[in-house]
Amino acid sequence: MIPTQLSVTRVLVLLFLLAGCASPGTVDPAVSKAPEDPRDYFDRLAQFISSAQKFQTTVRMGFDVLQDWGQKIEFGERHRITVVRPDRLRADILKSHGEESVVLFDGRRITAYNRTRNVFAQTEKTASIDEMLVYFLSDLRMRLPLALMFRSDFPEEIEKRLEALVFVEVSVVTDVPCVHLAGRTDEIDFEIWIPETGAPLPVRLTITYRDEAGQPKFWADFENWNMAPAVADADFLFTPPEGVERIPFLVEIEKALGERKSKGDD
Amino acid sequence: MRIQRSLPSAVAIAAVAVFFSIIVEEAMARGPGGGRGGSHRVGRMHHHRMGPASRGNLHARPRHQPGMRRPTRTGSTERLRTRGAPRPTPARPLPPTAAVPPEARPDDRQEIHDQLAERREARERRRENIRDAHRDEYRERRYREELGTTYSSDYWDDDQCEAEVVVDGITYYACGGNWYRRAYSNGEVNYVVVEGPRSD
User: What digits encode the pLDDT tens for the residues B151-162?
Assistant: First the structure.
């Protein structure tokens, strides 16, 4: 019967995998020796990114979402991030179910445009990227994964949060050998893979939200780092396409409702 | 710090046990033909797309601010469908011994497989009927939602709405006795309960 044959095959595959997992219990220091203080690797990365005048990268990412019935389901996104300091940022976002959107910041305006639904929200904000990101995430309650990495104070911010950082190994299964580090803050666990040689730009990052129900995980694979992207000012400007509808940010509606309610209470 | 590389043996054993139960479940679901379709009917579940990990930030969710509404909640259409009705739950994998007695002959085993598959299908049909009944009930018994209640677009279904009105360039949706309009939050388009458009 076909299912039984498949089952046997799967069992063999699983046993093979488990056998692989059951090999030596700890990292062999002779194979993966910490070449230097893990903090040095991490600091170098943080300094390199934060001091870059401009850069572009494509980030494939996925994250677990715990469902009501107890199962964690992973969803994916692809972000193409362009940063030109001090005040230009663009994120082209494709979600795994096909929805496309763009976040634009031209130094004076923040625009979130959903190409699939042909709507956009926009607000005036004259600021640097650092200020814009704080405003975008906290005040507008929007979302931009890995935003901290795009800030110029990334090294200081991560230093404030970092509680522990250890060397795991030099991974040779990545495209280039990477130093694999594992860190902790008071809220999350993370792992990062940084090329052993060359530009200290992250290849992979995972974050585990250990205090959240189900300990969901976020992962990001970085591709096509370009530290000299050819970009123009127009790339950060929003030109409303035909038939697009402007919608508010939710916080604007909530603010209006709150004001109306407080007037009603008076 | 010593970093463990191997799975603890208990985890390995548990993985094998779970895997076996999945195999049995799958074999049962496929039925005698071995193909998909037949009795293995997986309905479309309404799932959440956003959670703490979707933020992808090096810190956990923002600290709770008093009076702050969560950006997304279970969608209105989801609530219309399932309020009071049992939420669809995936069938639990049965342990191999409970599903098919090992002493059963091949013909008997096949028969048991078929019976279990039929029962499962009947159970799914019953669940679906209950869901449909509740959906119809709530379509008729409309309710007013609090202004500002927000739903993720992942749950939104325009078919649930009776009207779509554009006033001053703003699209309003009339659904189940409430008016909604779209707003951006948490990186996605949401639907928020608002006052209806002014007629003057």
Answer: 888 778 878 788
